[in-house]
Amino acid sequence: MPEQPPHPNEEPRWLTPAELETWQRFSLMLHKLPTALEAQLQQDSGLRYAEYYVLAGLSDQPEHRMRMSELAILANSEQSRLSHMMSRLERRGFVRREPDPTNGRYTHAILTDAGLAHLVEAAPGHVARVRALVYDVLDPAELDSLRSAAEKISESIDRWE
Fold first, then answer.
1. Chain segment 27-65, per-residue pLDDT in tens
2. In angstroms, rounded to a whole number, what is the distance separating the alpha carbons of residues 28 and 35?
3. How deeply is 134 buried, as exposed, middle or buried, from its count of CB atoms within 10 A (0-12, 13-18, 19+)?
4. Is the pLDDT of residue 6 over 70?
5. 36-61: buried (b, 16+ CB within 10 Å) or exposed (e) per residue?
6. Superkingdom of this entry's organism (predicted)?
7. CB-side neighbour CA atoms (13 Å) of 23
């Protein structure tokens, strides 16, 4: 169970100077990393980071398809926002949508051959940028710590949602 916010009469648990410095650096990285990744993707492939993530997610699925509701969870996106993104990707011929053949109440998102080809073309530059920004600057022990911290923070976020 998540910790409840302090009662209005209770003193907040302020961050220590070391915690504040860590938080500020972490927050800055949270803002800078997606911007840097998106800049590379836009320049090299004309894709937004979220669009790349959706195409990559579909490429990992059997028959390159999944329900829109599941894709929204994977992409951490609201249905309406995902729908707008899918419309942009459809106009470019990278995805299509069709009713779920087993349950017409659902819609499937499907990665097209053109979308897969564009993803395959975009992936080397994206991976090179991820490697340059993250993996090349951390040693194996730091990567293990980063993975562990990311997992714990993600689990904490899930408990609050």
1. 999 999 999 999 999 999 999 999 999 999 999 999 999
2. 11
3. middle
4. no
5. ebbebbeeebebbbbbbbbbebbeeb
6. Bacteria
7. 7
**Two tokens at 66?**
């999944």
What are the structural domain ranges in the chain?
45-127
DSSP string, 8-31: TTSPP-PPPHHHHHHHHHHHHHHH
Asked if residue 3 has pLDDT above 70, the reply is: no
Domain 45-127 in CATH 1.10.10.10? The answer is: yes
Report d(CA 115, CA 80) in Å as an integer: 21
Return the structure tokens found at 35: 């911007």
Looking at the DSSP bridge assignments, the partners of residue 95 are 111
- Whether the per-residue pLDDT at 96 is higher than 80: the answer is yes
